[in-house]
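Suppose a colleague, Dr. K., hands you the sequence of a protein chain of 304 amino acids and asks what its three-dimensional shape might be. Before reaching for any lab equipment, you can write down a predicted structure in token form. Begin with the sequence itself:
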Amino acid sequence: MAGIVLLGPKDPFDFPDWRFETLDIVHDAETASIWMNYRVDAPQCYTLNMLLELLQLRDSLRALWRSARMRDFPFRYLVMAAKRPGVFSLGGDLASFATAIRARDAATLLTYAHACVDLVYSYSQSLDLPIVTLCAVQGQCLGGAMEAALAFDFIIAEEDAVFGLPEVAFNTFPGMGAVTLLTRRIGPALTERMISSGETFSGRAMFDASVIDRLAPPGGARAAAVDWMREDGDAKWRRRRALAEARRRSYPITHDELRRITELWAETSTRIEERDLRHMERLVRAQQRLIRQAEKASKQEGGV
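The predicted structure, expressed as tokens, is then:
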């Protein structure tokens, strides 16, 4: 990919002991699933380093599938989840965006945007592997994090999870897949209303709007994901895979479409005004306060 140097895939024969700075990888034999968990100590937004690790994991999983190691660690589900209390992910790296915009550094925005849509497109195609992908959401899932979740075949979310696309607040729009992916799920009219409102929505509201596939009680996303994968074994997995493939064929998503939209996002972002930048920076400070509160709560729960 132009602008960044991709990390080479991990050795399949080191699986499941792959090590990442931002991710924990777990193989669950009972459900034949691989869980990609955002680490508690990882950045709570998508830094470029995190994107590079996610792209490396994608390539590593493809290599694992082709290797003899699959005999020992078969998988038919890929699950995206987070270990952070109260936060799935806060989405794009707004602090880096603001710095690049102030410097009129469109190249940095494009590099980041292209990495995002390359990853989102891979998720939307189930990594080009014969698997089913599942996103298990707890806590806040905002901006780019919601876009990543929408690219998965199925979404389970806790009733009190928080979804939102805040970009309209600083006069831009969610440019890493939301327009395409939401339209596939709920149609263009409701997609435009949701994006234009800038509001946040509970997991319950997203279920009622048919954005997500199943609700879990507060604190129950992981258990619900495991139960969902256990249902009816091979027969249910085959039906789910067929349904996901039927969606792709009925409402095809192209890499070119995602790139053209994200390039429009980068162009739009470089033209926002000073007052919009100040609002973006206020949101960054609010996110940082949220992170500190979550870290404090985590330490208190752990008795630290």
